């Protein structure tokens, strides 16, 4: 279904968890991408200018990696602000999903990879409760992005 079922308490704890990691959006976004590129090297193929980078250090210094890391975190932040409003949430998720499906042709499994790395980072930095508070949000984001892919026939 396209309606989300977050209780008020879940929304508050998810936002609290997200705020901790979003404070350093660029650094944490960069860490997430560098981990993805290092642990899943095939994901680098979507980014022409990241392809030649092999070392994590080199990636961390790249303005493009940093810029995209911040972009990813900004998009998730917009979604987190609208967990209590399905229409607004989907208004962010749908165009994002369409762009990644039709223009960028990104394999949707990569959304799950990014979300899992974010959860991993939350747990490392802020503990299991922080991760647990945000898990439902990542499931929701991935489910809706995957739905967009089905709708556009990708």
Which labels suit this protein?
single chain; 154 residues; 0% strand; mainly alpha; Globin-like; 7 helices
Task: Summarize the SSE layout with pairings.
Elements: H1 8-22, H2 25-39, H3 56-61, H4 63-80, H5 86-103, H6 109-126, H7 128-151
Helix pairs in contact: 1-4, 1-7, 2-4, 2-6, 4-5, 5-7, 6-7
Protein architecture, described:
With 154 residues, the protein is an all-alpha fold. It has a single domain (8-152), classed as Globins (Globin-like, Orthogonal Bundle), CATH 1.10.490. Helix content is 74%, strand content 0%. It contains 7 helices and no strands. The chain has helices spanning 8-22, 25-39, 56-61, 63-80, 86-103, 109-126, 128-151. Helix 1 crosses helix 7 (128-151). The chain is globular.
Structural class: mainly alpha
Total domains: 1
How do the helices and strands follow one another from N- to C-terminus? HHHHHHH
What's the pLDDT, averaged over the residues? 92
CATH fold-level assignment: Globin-like
Strand residue content: under 5%
* Low-confidence spans: none
The helix fraction, in percent, is: over 70%
Describe the global form.
globular
* Major beta-sheet overview: none
**CATH architectural designation:** Orthogonal Bundle
Q: Please report the first level of CATH classification, the CATH class.
A: Mainly Alpha
Per DSSP, the total helix count is 7
Tell me the Rg in angstroms.
15 Å
Multimeric state: single chain
Distance between the termini: 19 Å
Total number of β-strand segments? Answer: 0
Mind telling me the CATH superfamily name? Answer: Globins
GO molecular function: heme binding; iron ion binding; oxygen binding; oxygen carrier activity; superoxide dismutase activity
Catalytic activity: Fe(II)-heme b-[protein] + nitric oxide + O2 = Fe(III)-heme b-[protein] + nitrate; H2O2 + AH2 = A + 2 H2O; 2 superoxide + 2 H(+) = H2O2 + O2; Fe(III)-heme b-[protein] + nitric oxide + H2O = Fe(II)-heme b-[protein] + nitrite + 2 H(+)
Pfam families: Globin (PF00042)
Family: Belongs to the globin family.
